[in-house]
Input
Amino acid sequence: MIDYREKCIALLHERGVDIKDIADCARFLQADYHVDLKMEELLDSVYSVLSKREVQHAIITAIELDKLAENKVMDDKELEDILLRDEGLYGVDEVIAYGICNLYGSIALTNFGFIDKKKYGIIAKLNEEGKNTGRCNTFLDDIVGAIAASAASRFAHRWVK
Ligand code: MG
Output
């Protein structure tokens, strides 16, 4: 049987994203609310998010679309061009990201919007890399933001005072 979580971790890695980078984004999102945040706890939340099949399917689909555009093998050349330019009015990349966030409630959604605007850490790096380099990270940056936002939300919900 295929271990989809491992497959997703390998796919993310192949695209330049380490699980620790995502945990760091989750830590950034929670930093204002907790002193003494432990990286291991956030890493634990990231692994948990990555265990959900719906999340795994979103990651696999998103990365495949980026790669198809990047390798210029899409049937629809206009769509390929939209993805390569990361056109502002496209938005399907965010919709796939919401699909992940929706599994983790409203905190995940607001966190996603926040980190998407702030472009913290690995998300900033992916965003820059996607500009005029031939690299397509149109779906990946949102997927990474959504995983971080979901991990932060899971962490917040499990916090017992
Ligand atoms: Mg995007």
